[in-house]
Specification:
The protein is an alpha/beta fold and 246 residues long. It has 2 domains: 197 residues, Rossmann fold; 38 residues, no CATH class. 49% of the residues lie in helices and 14% in strands. The two termini are 26 Å apart. One of its GO terms (biological process) is monocarboxylic acid metabolic process. Belongs to the short-chain dehydrogenases/reductases (SDR) family. Pfam families: adh_short_C2 (PF13561). This is D-beta-hydroxybutyrate dehydrogenase.
């Protein structure tokens, strides 16, 4: 099961797991985008439109998934960011970031992990960020949410360690996604730099000096879902984060 599956990292995750022989529940807000994804992925992909901020709908989605059987892999990928100085970060912006980046993953874990354990075990993979382990100006709400997600990851890893359910987090630096494009546009508008210059600035922040591709994150998650990773739990895996791997 992959949340935020219609684009970016989530889309790469859904396609990669289908290609490896998994049946994939793909969750996202846009039914149209999910149908396009299904046309590309085939019948192994099961689209499930959902706004993760709607708790009743989220719980109903979990019930529908469990009726078909507990998932072996749960990937909490859906996320949003808000970029603003502290004084201009509205309460409603903070609440939405926390609802999507923290509350929704927590609820999916709460509703699905016990069934995964009962079914014999599984893998939970949370998609975090370099912001899970370091701070950055103008992103206090986002950083708070990703730090909280890492706390959930580490706590549940301990709670389910003897139930054959591993819980890990992947913390990439800058990834080539729509969120990156929005950040580039914001930097360009507020700083006077061109979008090319803004992209170069962000790429330079990555240890490799280039943007991470979504498919690289998918490959990491496939490893965490494999038998080879059965003893890895409570770990935050940094991608291109340099000294800020956590």
């Amino acid at each position: 099961m992959v949340t935020g599956a219609s684009r970016g990292i989530g889309r790469a995750l859904a396609l990669a797991f289908v290609q490896q022989g998994y049946d994939v529940w793909a969750l996202a807000r846009s039914a149209e985008a999910l149908e396009k994804l299904k046309a590309e992925a085939g019948d192994a992909l099961r689209p499930l439109p959902l706004d993760v901020t709607d708790e009743a709908a989220l719980l109903a989605a979990c019930r529908a998934i469990l009726q078909a059987g507990a998932p072996h892999v749960l990937i909490n990928n859906a996320g949003i960011s808000v970029s603003a100085p502290l004084a201009k970060t509205r309460t409603e912006d903070l609440a939405r970031v926390m609802a999507i980046n923290v509350t929704a993953p927590y609820l999916f874990c709460r509703e699905l992990m016990p069934a995964m354990a009962t079914a014999g075990g599984g893998r939970v993979i949370n998609i975090g960020s370099i912001a899970s382990v370091r701070g950055a100006a103008y992103t206090s709400a986002y950083c708070a949410s990703k730090h909280a997600l890492l706390g959930i990851t580490r706590s549940l890893a301990v709670e389910f360690a003897r139930k054959n359910v591993t819980v890990n987090q992947v913390n990439p630096a800058w990834v080539e996604t729509d969120m990156l494009a929005q950040t580039v546009s914001t930097i360009s508008k507020t700083s006077g730099r061109t979008e090319v210059q803004a992209r170069e600035t962000l790429a330079a922040m990555n240890a490799t000096g280039r943007m991470i591709q979504p498919e690289e994150i998918a490959a990491t998650c496939l490893f965490l879902a494999s038998d080879a990773a059965a003893s890895i739990t409570g770990t935050a895996i940094a991608l291109s984060a340099g000294d800020f791997g956590g």
